[in-house]
């Protein structure tokens, strides 16, 4: 059990760190991006999953602190990986709509990037579907502003939230992430495959690129490549790893 004070302290003490999960292009297998995922390791080595601490942050006004921390970590690692010889990666960061407060948020995100010499064109903000609806007008205004600055906007966990089609029609998304619930087992499950095909049709009509999450097997990779997904993310390539071991994880995959 963790309480809000422990969460606050962990964030302040830097005990919550960014791990990075590679995303590879279906066309050629090349890793072209990473998703930053928050990890909290306790002193005894046990990990507290984000499904436990993110909701606590969301309901206690702490999640904006997490987002800016993750953005800054992603920017820092991005320049280290470039120095290590990698091409510039697309960096995806999760954003809770709970922190989609005022327009100043867009300026703050932009200035974090600029401090690290990174342009918003290289950063994708992943918005979980169910979350934007909490304050529609304000949320929409901020997302439009972020898009105008050049940030990519991704619909996370597509197909699992509420009003996903409403949001797709209103928000200037650039990317759709097919939830891993549809990807796992799709090669032998025609109903999952149908959902994936329809999501891809919609994405093409809206000019969105498509990431398939939770790709675990070569059969899933082949099916999704054949259906026309752009990027794969999943244990087949690599789990999320610390920034220090990303280059190694990419080499192991290729
Ligand atoms: O990392 P998994 O390994 O457990 O992540 C589970 C979920 O936790 C993710 O889908 C995401 O919704 C949430 N999550 C992980 N990292 C972050 C983060 O930095 N910010 C927010 N808001 N959510 C995160
Ligand atoms: O933001 P989001 O909920 O989409 O984060 C992705 C979640 O999926 C993280 O918890 C991550 O650890 C997890 N994940 C990543 N790749 C795989 C995979 O191949 N299989 C499964 N079951 N989970 C995965
Ligand atoms: Na995500
Ligand atoms: Mn997701």
Automatic annotation (TrEMBL):
Q: Which GO terms describe its molecular function?
A: cyclic-guanylate-specific phosphodiesterase activity
- EAL domain span: 1-254
Q: Does the keyword Phosphoprotein apply?
A: yes
| Any single GO BP term | phosphorelay signal transduction system
Q: Which UniProt keywords apply?
A: Phosphoprotein
Q: Which protein is depicted?
A: Uncharacterized protein
Positions spanned in the full protein = 142 to 395 of 399
């Amino acid at each position: 059990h963790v309480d809000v004070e422990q969460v606050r302290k962990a964030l302040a003490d830097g005990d919550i760190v960014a791990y990075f999960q590679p995303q590879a292009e279906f066309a050629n297998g090349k890793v072209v991006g990473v998703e930053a995922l928050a990890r909290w390791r306790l002193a005894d080595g046990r990990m507290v999953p984000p499904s436990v601490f993110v909701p606590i942050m969301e309901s206690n006004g702490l999640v904006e602190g997490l987002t800016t921390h993750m953005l800054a970590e992603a920017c820092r690692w991005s320049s280290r990986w470039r120095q290590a010889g990698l091409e510039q990666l697309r960096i995806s960061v999760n954003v809770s709509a709970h922190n989609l407060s005022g327009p100043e948020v867009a300026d703050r995100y932009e200035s974090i990037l600029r401090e690290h010499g990174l342009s918003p064109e290289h950063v994708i903000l992943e918005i979980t579907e169910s979350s934007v609806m909490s304050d529609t007008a304000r949320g929409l205004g901020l997302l439009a502003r972020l898009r105008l600055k050049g940030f990519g906007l991704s619909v996370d966990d597509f197909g699992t939230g509420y009003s996903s089609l409403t949001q797709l029609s209103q928000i200037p998304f650039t990317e759709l992430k097919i939830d891993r619930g549809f990807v796992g087992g799709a090669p032998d499950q025609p109903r999952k495959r149908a959902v994936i095909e329809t999501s891809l049709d919609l994405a093409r009509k809206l000019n969105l690129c498509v990431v398939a999450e939770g790709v675990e097997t070569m059969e899933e990779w082949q099916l999704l490549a054949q259906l026309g997904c752009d990027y794969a993310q999943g244990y087949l390539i690599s789990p999320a790893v610390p920034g220090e071991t990303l280059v190694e994880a990419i080499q192991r995959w290729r």
